[in-house]
Write a structure and sequence with these properties.
9 helices, DNA-binding, Tetracycline Repressor, domain 2, homotetramer, mainly alpha
Chain lengths: 225, 225, 225, 225
Amino acid sequence: MSTTVRRAAPGPAWLGELEPRKRPSQARSHATFAAIVDACGRLLARGRYETLTTNAIAERAGVSIGTLYEYFPNRESIVAALAAESCRRLVVRMHEAVEETAGMAPHAGVEHLIEAGVEALRAPENVFTALVREAPFVLRLPPVQEAREALTDLCQDIRTRASDTVRLPEPQADTWLISQMLFNAMLEIALLDGPEARRALLQRELARLTFRMAVGCDPPGGVSE
Amino acid sequence: MSTTVRRAAPGPAWLGELEPRKRPSQARSHATFAAIVDACGRLLARGRYETLTTNAIAERAGVSIGTLYEYFPNRESIVAALAAESCRRLVVRMHEAVEETAGMAPHAGVEHLIEAGVEALRAPENVFTALVREAPFVLRLPPVQEAREALTDLCQDIRTRASDTVRLPEPQADTWLISQMLFNAMLEIALLDGPEARRALLQRELARLTFRMAVGCDPPGGVSE
Amino acid sequence: MSTTVRRAAPGPAWLGELEPRKRPSQARSHATFAAIVDACGRLLARGRYETLTTNAIAERAGVSIGTLYEYFPNRESIVAALAAESCRRLVVRMHEAVEETAGMAPHAGVEHLIEAGVEALRAPENVFTALVREAPFVLRLPPVQEAREALTDLCQDIRTRASDTVRLPEPQADTWLISQMLFNAMLEIALLDGPEARRALLQRELARLTFRMAVGCDPPGGVSE
Amino acid sequence: MSTTVRRAAPGPAWLGELEPRKRPSQARSHATFAAIVDACGRLLARGRYETLTTNAIAERAGVSIGTLYEYFPNRESIVAALAAESCRRLVVRMHEAVEETAGMAPHAGVEHLIEAGVEALRAPENVFTALVREAPFVLRLPPVQEAREALTDLCQDIRTRASDTVRLPEPQADTWLISQMLFNAMLEIALLDGPEARRALLQRELARLTFRMAVGCDPPGGVSE
DNA sequence: GATGAATGAGCATTCATTCAT
DNA sequence: CATGAATGAATGCTCATTCAT
């Protein structure tokens, strides 16, 4: 149902090997692996991507640089792993959120999805915003592309299930556009520094605009809501 | 009318000096200056930001590395100059496009704006897409921020002038959201590799969705257009 | 007893970090550290300070430039380490020489100290003269300042112990002056190219003049010695 | 009467050409020449030798870099010219001071010479101290060597004229030593930051010690002066 | 003569990555 | 398995000097 062809495993040629060298199997290995990815995230959240060095990641993770290279073939692969994990969390959360909309009115459902999305993007353990701000190439990384496709698929699902409400003349293209715009708008809201109230207002309005896009009219309750 | 406070002159502290060392005054100087910025753009369009070196820029521009540093204090400032120029072109083009919509039906106007925007973003002499893809910090650069603010202001202007058609309960916030979404969606379309037809379809649909967002219903002519 | 206030740890602000990055702990590390400092000394003994490059030091030391920067944060810190070591050797030797004067007649003691001092300053493993000739800032480096203070202190000690012979109306100031003059005169003698005999004569006469300064009359044995 | 052989004009091989390219003949040329040398002095008095660049000198002198190279063949030659001028001033002043001692008692004469010497070394228009601190290679420059020889000659003159008072068993060597020590001690005093009183004390004591060196006993008036 | 734009060899320093222990 | 000393290619940038105008 995805709109783009999924490419083969290792990623485009303009990035080297992106897969970790070894998937951690035992508990200890797993902890080391996680510590490295985590250190990378914390470093990225605080500094510029250009100052992110493998030596710094290793030190922050409390492992030797040699150990780091046991697990990852190069620097990019660590960022890729971080991005993948972050995306996985995001997709899981969005699926949960969709479940939670069961029984809600369409407009309330959209609002709930947006709220959940922004919250997930802003979660501190979720380095998504840092990643996007500092290393935009991650947006072209297979795991991230897949995540965006998964979100598009999700939108397509919703459209299918709500086909009595939704009115899209070009279902496929329109859904893709809406999903892109929603994702970017949520990201912009998540990146905003302003007060909580502003963010809440923007989320509510984003829901209204999304409803308008999908249905072609305002939700019952009128413009003044 | 801008949505963000404009900051003081020299740009954020997390980047060093961003202003060129000397503004070209004579014809010869100007040509050198332009050659450097241009070389930077061409390099950025073809390679990763991380492989962009000052020596490569100088070589490509056909000047010595010493000359490059006569005009720019550091590497970032070249990218900043490129971004500023690119943004300026984009904003100018969008203002033109707005003029051109005079007399058009609202929906046709939106479509025209989107067409012009995508075209401008894709223009080869406009390195905007390369910049966004490759240079993380560019989006946070004052000239780029100002360009985005200028585009938002433009949307606010349009809304004011079309206040009889547009129906936005939270005019300020809604316009900001629409402008963000439009900009990002146009960027996504511009970045797309697919066939021209697909891009045309997406532009048309983006116009429809934008109309829906702004007015709350489909343009005259119905869903089937 | 020192004549100047000792300053706080890291050295003056007009030079960057001067401390080595890591003090060598193991045998191998220590050898590398020493090889770098030693190479710096040999290079300085043969060429001008301005031609002393970190790459040359690394090559001469038989280590890679990267390794050099593992141990030292910058070029100055290598020269500083060299100066510190050289000073330490000098101070140690002068202390020894003072011990050796036990039981000597005062004038013979002075002569012995001067002989030892010039010899130490000329010692090929002691790059002191090269350092003074070539590296402007070295004399203002904390370790060098401390060495000069140590030598002044030494003179003050001698004065105190020989208080029955020495006749100085302004003990503190006079001793400081004598120590400065002695140090510089020994340096001038050590820097001299002439034949050994001339150096010996100058050393003998320097001892006489020093005795005159300290006691106010010629040593027993008369002017004709 | 000098103790070292005077070398041929252009200076040792380890420094390039040191002579100015053209001696200024006309008033205008002369002003330019002086402005460059002066700018060099002011820059040296305020910053480190390593930060002294020809471009900075030209800018400070208010001439173009091209003009600077019309007058001087390289950077060192500017510093050399500055040193030569500074030395010339110093030697002139010392000769004057010697004239001024006519009729003074020997000890008072020595004191006067020292006072005049320290004052000359400290004079702000005299960059001698800055030169020594920042570019010790100037001490090996022909003009400076010649100045030091001139000062030694001066001491030898004084010795000859005061041969009834002075008692030096090795007149030539002793005078050389005294002159070296005096010069260095005066330099040390001139470089001192402390209060004026301390400097005055040191000058007085230096006179006493010099008298002791030259005559072998305290001046009439006793140790307590 | 004077100018200052242009030059480019050369320097200090970084950092991803390897491999002997 | 883990370590961390060692590597060295590559980068940003400076500055003495030249030369066309």
